[in-house]
Design a protein that fits this description.
The chain is of the alpha+beta class and 211 residues long. It has a single domain, classed as Maf protein (Alpha-Beta Complex). Helices cover 35% and strands 17% of the residues. It contains five helices and four strands; from the N terminus they run H-H-E-H-E-E-E-H-H.
Length: 211
Amino acid sequence: MATTNPNKAAEIRRLMLAALGEAAADLCVVDARDLHLDATLEDCATYAGNAEKKARLVAAADPAAAVLADDSGLEVVALGGAPGLLSARWVTDPGGRPLDGPGLNAALLRRMEGLPPGDRRARMVCAVALLLPGGRLVQGWGEVHGVIAPDCRGTGGFGYDAVFLLSDGRRLSEVAPGIKDRLGHRGQAVGAVVPELRRWLRSEEVGIRSG
């Protein structure tokens, strides 16, 4: 996994292992931190471009591995689609360091003070890049629509989950991990590439047994 975010790594690991089922029994799943790589550079103009760039960075360190990378963001209609590609770093502290999740949520709520529900529409989006040995690139996309709540609530999830209201009135931070995996933007995007990962795993298994 081409990520150094521990929360994202845990979610992607859970998504992949659940989707692969028995095919994941012998998998060793590691992230960029285990390889001592910095997979945080996101300077492309699209989510898909950032995901592919991170995947290729990690693949260069281990060409025999299948690499999964993502780039995700929150897009708020009233803010012209911001924070968008800069979701993880659009607000910084006095030292120039990106704020953590609670800090980002607080900054977002300040900018949206007084806006009525009709002006608080937003979506969370995610692009996934799966890079297989040999250079085959498979891409996935997911998005979930909702509104920005007037306050933070819930203890689950990470990032903007505590302020993102689903159509049923719950926040992403208030639903069980399995439900978030099914409804969420990252779950959709990872699910889109899992069939190709499963096919590659089956081909590897055949190759090992033949050898």
